Amino acid sequence: MVEALPYLAEYPYGCVEQTLNRFLPAVIVADTLKQLGLDPGQALESHRNLNPQAIRDKAFYDKIMERLERNPVYSERKLKAMAEKGIRDLREKQLSNGSWGWFGGASEGDPVMTAHVAHGLKIASNTVNVPEGMLSKAIRWLKNYQERQTALLEKGDEY
Description:
Layout: H1 5-9, H2 16-35, H3 40-48, H4 58-69, H5 76-93, H6 111-124, H7 134-156
């Protein structure tokens, strides 16, 4: 779980879903480790301090360590910066009505993407700061969307 995070953190694409999934897994893992009473920094230190004679494949070990050193969970500073950037990017991609499309610059919101981001922000808000109004605007948009869709379904029986 921890070793996969550098891949997600460095994923090069920037649609709304990938922006959320770049930082949210790291926030969840860090929070889980904290709840379990585990210190990610100590885990990284124990990897660094392995007995060099016990390492059978130095190249493989070096490759693993390179990935672990980039892992945001091992650094609260890196994790915080990554989460703040992700939330900032999502805020920029949020439409004025509170919704998100699949990509920044979308002309209209998508209910699936808006629900996905709202859920992710709710989870992240337990650990990092989510700007005031960002989540509530999304929830309001989702409620209005649901009401419009329900009205269309009810009206459909009239035809």
